[in-house]
Amino acid sequence: MPVNDTIYAYAVGRIRALETRLLDRSRFERMIDSSSAEDALKVLAETDYSGAVSELSDFHNFESVLTAELKNSFDTLIRICPRPELIKILILRYDVHNLKVLFKAKYLGIKSDLFIPIGSLDLEKLAYSAAEDDYRDLPVKLRRAAEKISEDFLMNRDPQAIDLILDRVLYEQLIAVARENGSAFLEGMFIRQIDLTNLRSLIRIKRMGLDREFIKKVLLPQGTLPIDRLTANLDEPLESLVSSLMMSDYADLIEEGVREWLEKGTASRLEKLSDDYITAYLKQGKWMPFGFEPLVGYLWAKEIEIKNIRLVLVGKINRLPAEAIRERIRDVYI
Amino acid sequence: MMDGIQIALLGAALAVGLAGIGSAIGVGIVGQSAAGLVTEDPDKFGQTLLLQALPGTQGIYGLLTGFMIMQRVGIIGGGLVNLSVPDGYAFLMASIPVAIVGLISAVYQGRVSAAAIGLIAKRPEELGKGIVFAVMVETYAVLALLASIMLLFGIPV
Predict the structure, then answer these.
(1) Residues A13/B33, Cβ–Cβ less than 8 Å
(2) Which of B35, B107, B118 sits opposite A16 (nearest CB)?
């Protein structure tokens, strides 16, 4: 009798209620159609964000509302998930992001406030570690990565190494934890993210005209698209990459994304389609009455919702036409 | 050596015990889902309670069967019947449908009801449909009860 998945019964019951409060497409349409950023924020104030929005003295500070909301969602899920380590692994991305910001600040001398205060590592301690070049307090994998970056930078003075080393560690760790816990669903999500990241890196590097050796350093090894195949027709135009992927799951997304990238010179369409692809994968969890899947789905939905709110508000502040914002809005989970 | 009466009582114990275990698991699953929903939306308590009660019936069917066996062998109502071993086995076998089907159907009914908790989280007006889905599982518990009762009354003691 399948009773194991019922350990998630409480959590899923709660998620089902929380899902009803996610913003739907029509809410985003109203925000897009509003005349200014302030009006868009008023639409937001009709939703679950009302409390935080009403306390906002200057609407330019909306970012703090979004971060607080996301942090709140992660905290709730960690509390209600019977296996919180599976939720915590989803936070690793933010730790890695913060580390990247920190290292770039340190090695490139850029003052930065791009930290996202969601990660599990304390930002002050992290800054202290970086300043002292002492990473003993970091988790083992991150510590090794940090030491490798220090070493590499001393020798090569190449800031790109920061992203390369940290991304590699991030995905190694994500896949390892998903496998350890026997979560094929989670592993499936990470593998799809790796594939999509690899595709984007490949196209970006190709457009920058960088060489084969560099590409091999950038591409992450755990994806389903073999690196050999990805790099095979590197010297031919991008269209041949599109046709070589015609038989893969990513055919539609790559075709449309690359076409717009070549036409408009921006990756934003491909990025939107990549997010939508993950959303479509995670939507399976929407119909599961038990199990871990609805929890991952909800967190992703929240991340996408926050990304969408940011897109609309930033678009409104910069007076982008409604159509330009609408194009970038990600599909919603509900 | 085992007398007929002990075997008959084993039947009564299994009917009450197994069907009861099934109901406890089923009601437990729905209860957890319901608690999750009510944490976020306390107004739905009444509706969720209705769904939680559904997998409880198997336990009642088991108890009913148990009582009938006890009554027929004279444990309740006085005048203990002198049962032969084959008659004892007949009572044990009569209890099996409600015991086994009760155990399994209650767990599955609990799963359906918990899924219905998700349904009323989004569409509270569709509670009736959620109940119908859960009650479909009930059919087989009722059929098993029917079989157990018919078997019980067919034993010539």
Answers:
(1) yes
(2) B118
User: Given the structure tokens 């073999």, which residue do they identify?
Assistant: A226
Q: How close, in Å, is residue B136 to chain A by CA atoms?
A: 18
Burial of A180 (0-12, 13-18, 19+ CB in 10 A): exposed
* Spatial contact of A330 and A308, defined as CB atoms under 8 Å apart: yes
Query: pTM for the complete prediction?
Result: 0.90
Based on the domain organization, do A228 and A278 belong to the same domain?
yes
How do residues A250-299 score in pLDDT, each as one tens digit?
A: 988 988 998 888 888 888 999 999 999 999 999 988 888 899 999 999 99
- CB-based contact B117 A10, cutoff 8 Å: no
- In order of A155, A196, A198, A202, A300, the CA distances from A166 in angstroms are 17, 17, 15, 18, 22
For chains A and B, CB pairs below 8 A equal 66
**End residue of a domain, out of A165, A180, A195:** A180
Please name the residues between 65 and 104 in chain B that touch chain A, using a CB distance below 8 Å. Answer: 104
- Count the Cβ atoms, other than its own, within 10 Å of residue A153: 18
Distance CA A24, CA A41 (A): 15
Q: Which domain holds residue B139?
A: 4-153
The total number of structural domains that make up chain A:
3
> Nearest to residue A119, comparing CAs of A151, A84, A158, A89?
A89
Test A19 with B41 for CB contact under 8 angstroms.
Answer: no
Integer Cα distance of A322 and A304 in angstroms: 19
